[in-house]
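Hi support team,

I submitted a single chain yesterday and got back a structure, but I'm not sure I'm reading the C-alpha cell output correctly. Could someone confirm the output below corresponds to the sequence I sent? I've pasted both exactly as they appear in my results page.

Thanks,
R.
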Amino acid sequence: MPVQSCGSVPGRAVSGPFDLPRFNAAPATEAEAALLECYGSRRWAKRLADHRPYPDVDALLAAADEAGYDLSPADRAEALAAEVSPGLHPDAPHSAHLALAAAHAAYECRFGHVFVICLDGFGPAEHPDQVLAGIRARLAHDPEQERVVTADEMRRLARGRIIELVSSQ
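Hi R., thanks for writing in. Yes, this is the structure output for that exact sequence:
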C-alpha cells in the first residue's frame, strides 16, 4: 500500500547516525544521499546540502519547506515516485487489505500518483482508518486542489524525516 507516515517508516530507513553538527560537516554527497531519503527530489536534496551549515534544526526545516515550495512539477513527481510504504501489517484482516487496495487504486487512477499522508499524532492502530478516510475525502478534490494537498503532505513527511535524521545519535 503506498502510504507514508511522518518520521520513521519501516522499509525506509533514514541514514545516520547524524546530529546537526555532523550533518553540517558531512561531505556533500553523503548529506544529499541522506536528504534524498527524506524527500526523493535530487534538486531539493542538493539545494539543502549546498546551503549548509544550518545554525539549528528550525533553520534546516525552514529551508526544507522553502525548497519544497520552489520545486517544479517534475521535481515533485520525482519525489512522489520515490515514495514507498510497508502497507498494512500482514496479520491485518483480509477485508482491510481489500478496502485499502481498492481505495488506493481509485486514488491512483484519478490522480496518477501514489497517495501520501502524514500520520503524526495517530497511533499505528489508527493508521488504516485514517488512510482510508483520507483517501475517500481527497478523492472529492479536483486535481489542482489535490496537487496542493499532496505537496503539503510531502513537506510534512520531509519535516518528520529530517527531524529523525538529525536527531539520531
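A quick pointer for reading it: The domain at 86-154 is CATH 1.10.3330.10 (UraD-like). Let us know if anything else looks off.

Best,
Support desk
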